[in-house]
Design brief:
By secondary structure, the chain is of the alpha/beta class. It has helices spanning 12-23, 64-70, 75-79, 81-97, 156-165, 181-184, 192-199, 203-213, 232-239, 254-269, 391-394, 397-413; strands at 2-8, 28-32, 44-45, 102-103, 110-113, 119-122, 124-126, 131-132, 142-148, 169-175, 219-223, 244-247, 273-276, 280-286, 289-295, 304-310, 321-322, 327-328, 336-337, 360-361, 368-371, 374-381. Helix 1 runs parallel beside helix 10 (254-269), helix 4 (81-97) packs across helix 12 (397-413) and helix 8 (203-213) packs parallel to helix 9. The radius of gyration is 22 Å and the shape is globular. It binds flavin-adenine dinucleotide (FAD). Flavin-adenine dinucleotide binds at residues 8-14, 31-34, 36-38, 40-42, 44-46, 279-280, 311-313, 316-319, 331, 383-384, 391, 397-398, 401.
Length: 415
Amino acid sequence: MKFDTVIIGGGLSGLICGIRLSQQGQRCVIISSGQSALHFSSGSFDLLNVLPDGTEVSNPLASIDELIRQAPEHPYAKLGKDKFLDMAFTAEQFFKGVNISLKGNAKQNHYRVTPMGLLKPTWLSTQGFASSNINESLPWKKVAIFNLIGFLDFYPQFIADEFLKLGTESDIHLFDLPDIEHLRRNPSELRSTNIARVLDKKISELAEILNAKSNGCDAIIFPACIGLESDALHKLEEAVEKPIFLIPTMPPSIVGIHTQQYLHDYFLKLGGVYMLGDSVKKADIEGNKVVRLYSYNHGDIPFTGKDVVLATGSYFSQGLIATSDRIYEPVFNLDVSYAPDRKEWYNTKIFESQGYQKFGVKTDRSFRGLLQGQAIDNLYVSGAILEGFNPIKEGCGAGVSILSALAIAESILSK
Ligand SMILES: Cc1cc2nc3c(=O)[nH]c(=O)nc-3n(C[C@H](O)[C@H](O)[C@H](O)COP(=O)(O)OP(=O)(O)OC[C@H]3O[C@@H](n4cnc5c(N)ncnc54)[C@H](O)[C@@H]3O)c2cc1C
């Protein structure tokens, strides 16, 4: 099977790269084993919240010089200052271009509300999610927080307590809908995805409940368990009398699943081929080029492409595998940077930076994967699998996945 570019891994990074290449007329295939990190997403994309030395960042663009100084192997340092600025802007335009409406920009982080009601800096947030432009207060004096009776993945009291510290009062309302009853028979069924499947079809009944109980409040706060269907939240916004804002629940993430599905469908509309449930297991490399890729489902029938993008994610998605004594990349056995002494992999203080979070595949400055120290000409490495950054401590996970994907697409297209 012959393509211009073969992309391994169809999460945020693989999909953005595939869409970008397909928009320019390339014939691309994405081969992806299964769920991606988007299925657990907060609904916000982080670009850079904290520098490696712990300094908080409010303007990611203005902090790039210092990041490059502190972390020369960081994917943003490999991009370099000018390209980082360019790719951050390109990313914002990319989302507008594919009709994903997001709040925020790279010049100024805003603050999203976490499932615990805390404010956390971020770059771009899905429209309709609760957020604030400043971290000392919220934009409402009083809110009505709603939750379904028995839904345990959303914590109205924690949220109300945190909101009060920021000067916002809350009324908490628990409600019920007869159509939810069948889910309640088994507690494990009362999860955000199952609830959304019901609520998306019961907008007018839901709006009636919210309208009846939100008098005297500036806004309605609702768990993000609605909106698997594209227009459900929009219909609810139109049917309620107060502005409504969502707060992420514990996973699975409705907004993340929706984004994954939306990007997947967009890629298909551009003529892309997406092979879900298949895994690439090995490759033939000849003359410093990947010439054939083999997957579990296609056996001896190889995939070929002028270029290959490895976007298989980190440990979570098995793009990296950790054993008791080594960390390796399972498709090409690319060079991985990690500490040889296992004690440096982790810190017993669990909220501290963990060594393993920065380990990843080594690349040159163009994100071409290294095999025994040598860059493979047509193999690019994108997203969470990359070395040199800590997505959790630095708050840069989605940013690295998006910017590296766009930069790689640009390199491939400029060939
Ligand atoms: C649980 C979780 C939640 C996160 N939430 C956020 C957030 O809210 N905001 C934020 O900014 N960042 C978040 N991050 C950081 C995250 O890494 C990025 O946001 C980003 O989504 C990662 O995208 P990716 O495409 O690089 O990798 P992934 O999303 O991990 O996708 C990799 C894909 O490759 C597939 N794959 C793996 N091996 C193979 C193979 N051999 N063949 C074929 N396919 C393969 C996997 O099945 C998977 O679908 C989160 C990370 C995790 C782990």
